[in-house]
Amino acid sequence: MDLSGQVIDGKYELVSIAGEGGMATVYKARVRGAAGFQRAVAVKHIRPEYRALKNYIDMFIEEARVGSELAHPNIVQVHDFVSETGSYYLVMEWVEGIDVGAFIKAYRDAHHDVPWTLAVLIGIGTLQGLGAAHERIGPDGTPSPVIHRDVSPHNILLGVNGVVKLSDFGLARARDRAGSLTAPGTVKGKLSYLAPEVTFGKPNTVQSDLFGVGSVIWEMLTGDRLFDGRTDIEIFKKIRACQIPPIGQRRPDVPPALASVLEKSLAADPGSRFATAEEFGQELSQILKRAVDTTTASTLAAAVVAARKGLTPDDKQPDDRSSGESQADAKPSVERPSSINTDNMPTTQHAVLGESIEITLESSSQLQMTVPGIKRPEPDKPDEPDDPDSPDKPDEPKP
After folding, report:
1. CATH 3.30.200.20 domain position(s) in the chain
2. What confidence tens digit (pLDDT) does each residue in 97-132 have?
3. Among 113, 150, 168, 320, the one annotated catalytic
4. Would you say residue 339 has pLDDT above 70?
5. Are 91 and 41 a contacting pair, CB within 8 Å?
6. 4, 17 in Cβ contact below 8 A?
7. E strand or H helix at 186, and its extent?
8. Fold classification of 7-93 (topology level)
9. Which of 28, 57, 116, 274 lies in the 20 to 30 Å Cα band around 339?
């Protein structure tokens, strides 16, 4: 249902739909004030069919709570949270630009590589925002870090002014929350961007967020996802194996120092990764300083404007189950759940939570993909079951 034209809370006029996800619709809106004042904002509205589901409402409220306490230039700011006629509306900063997913697509469609200096600059901005979340201080003055849990290309927005903004804290876990919104044995996030330890049921940490940043940088440099496949099972296995192709094979122009930083950020063992977002960002900053070409926010701004010109309106929508604050994935249709069998794999139940995947780890040998009311592509059936004695079976990384 399109709410364009409606005024929320007496001051937020919904102008047009910016994107629709499985769980929410994002509108471009404007807020009006005295003496002709007006400003563009983004308004995220939870879809009517989810308003009666407490877990979804709780996540939406938590996104508002966490976002309101994260004031940083590299984080999309939350301005207001409104409840009206039984609906919730999250009012956020409007970012005029595109997300990193669309940025990558523009270069890929033009058969060009994203300059490594731009990929590094975007990585630095993302890490600055992420670091602010990790180093958050609670109202009582004690450290209360926020783990994003969903760092991916479509949650990183690039403004036409060259600013980098980390968005969508809908799955974030704040340490100062009394209870968890995630059931035991469940992990949340986009499947292709999960850190290996998370697929083994380990909790998300600072290091799992940093793995996501490394994965996004790798994707910007290559134009391909680090972990991809025809089915969720195939992707799941690749994540667990965590075999990272050397970036130099795909991008010979990448300096060895950057290749080493990427290798460290994408280590299978969380203890071998960077300790903090600040440490990771400082390493990238040093590499950028040594670059021959000067790359600044103005350079990125020009690249974003050029990328937007090369995209169609449909191209500006994310191409996976995700959304930034100003874009969201296509509205799904209804289909019954589907399932396939595979030997020696734990069961994972996938439920699209608007912009992400929820995975429940169990002890069965069946992978059951269950998506209530949401269409899923029919998976390719494997030719034959995996061999339990196969040497290719990945081992769990050592803690």
Report:
1. 7-93
2. 999 999 999 999 999 999 999 999 999 999 999 999
3. 150
4. no
5. yes
6. yes
7. strand 186-189
8. Phosphorylase Kinase; domain 1 (3.30.200)
9. 57
DSSP calls for 99-147: EHHHHHHHHHHTT-PPPHHHHHHHHHHHHHHHHHHHT-B-TTSSB--EE
| Sign of the CA dihedral with 345 first, then 269, 282, and 222 last | negative
Q: How far apart are CA 369 and CA 232, in angstroms?
A: 9
In this structure, what are the phi and psi dihedrals at residue 120, rounded to the nearest 5 degrees? Answer: -65, -45
> How do 12-20 and 24-32 pair as beta strands?
antiparallel
Q: Are 147 and 197 in contact (CB under 8 A)?
A: no
Q: Where in the chain is the domain with CATH 1.10.510.10?
A: 97-309
CB 343 within 8 A of CB 352: no
316: Cβ–Cβ under 8 A, 6 or more apart, which residues?
98, 102, 308, 327
pTM attached to this predicted model: 0.78
Band the pLDDT of 21: cuts 50, 70, 90: confident
Helix axes 100-109, 206-222, angle to 10 degrees: 20
Question: 237: part of which helix (H) or strand (E)?
Answer: helix 232-241
**What are the pLDDT digits (tens) for 7-18?**
999 999 999 999
Alpha carbons 166 and 128: distance in angstroms, whole number: 9
> Is 315 in the active site?
no
List all residues 6 or more positions away from 136 whose beta carbon is below 8 Å from its beta carbon: 69, 70, 143, 144, 145, 146, 174
Rounded to an integer, what is the distance from CA 31 to the centroid of its chain? 27
Q: For 156-198, how does the pLDDT look when each residue is reduced to its tens digit (9 = 90+)?
A: 999 999 999 999 887 666 444 444 444 444 444 578 999 999 9
Cross-strand pairs, 14: 29
CATH among 4.10.640.10, 3.40.50.150, 1.10.510.10, 3.40.50.980 for 97-309: 1.10.510.10
Over 90: is that where the pLDDT of 220 sits?
Answer: yes
